[in-house]
C-alpha cells in the first residue's frame, strides 16, 4: 500500500504517470480494501484511490460518521486535493450516494468529474423508509446474510462481529436518514449499474439516476443481487476503462 499522508485515501497501485484518477467509495460497513481487485485491474490505466471511512480497519478507533452530508463535506475537502487530474467516481450502494453528494460539492467549487458510476443504489430522489440501523445486533447480521455481502464464516465469528457491527450500524444510520435536497443536476456523465434481483434497488429506481445529470446517462443491468459486482468485476472494469477512453480529450 502506498502512503498518501491521508487517513481518507488508500492507493494500492499508484500510477503516477497516468492521466486519470478513479475514486472508489465503499458500501455500508465496507472498507477501502473491498476495491483492491478493482485497483489491481485498472492500474496502470488509472490511478485508483479507495476511500476509507472512519470506524473500520486502521481507523477502527475513530467514531463513525452517521450523517451523509457531514461525510460528503469532509471527503470533498480531501478529494479536492486530488483533482489535479481528471476524476471519475465509482460508488457502490451507500458509496454511490456519498459519491454523488461529493460530486455536487466539487462542482460548486468548479471541479467537474469525467463521470460517476452509481452501482447498486437507488437514485437520490428515490427514497424508501428503512430502519435497519434500529435493529439489534442479530437483526443487523440477518441483513448482512440477506444481501450476501459478507462471508458467512465471518458472521459466525464473535470477535469479527464486535469489530464490524458498529461501523455497519453507523453507516446504515447515515444512509437511512439521508434526505436528498433538490439542486442543479450534475454536468458529468452518469452510468447506473444494478443487479436484476437486488432486493434494495428496482430497475426503475436505478434508471432514475438519469434525472440527476444533464450529461449522457446509461443504465446497465447485471444478473445478480445487491453485490452483483463481485461476480462481474471484469465487465465493470471494462466499463470504466471504456468510459475513460471514450471521454479522453480529443476522442
UniProtKB/TrEMBL annotation:
Coiled coil: none annotated. InterPro entries: AB_hydrolase_fold, TEII, TesA-like, Thioesterase. It comes from Streptomyces thinghirensis. The keyword Metal-binding does not apply. This is Alpha/beta fold hydrolase. One of its GO terms (molecular function) is hydrolase activity. SUPFAM superfamilies: alpha/beta-Hydrolases (SSF53474). Keywords: Hydrolase. It comes from the Bacteria. Transmembrane segments: none annotated. PANTHER family: S-ACYL FATTY ACID SYNTHASE THIOESTERASE, MEDIUM CHAIN, THIOESTERASE. Residues 23-244 form the Thioesterase TesA-like domain. It holds the Pfam family Thioesterase. The keyword Disulfide bond does not apply. Belongs to the thioesterase family.
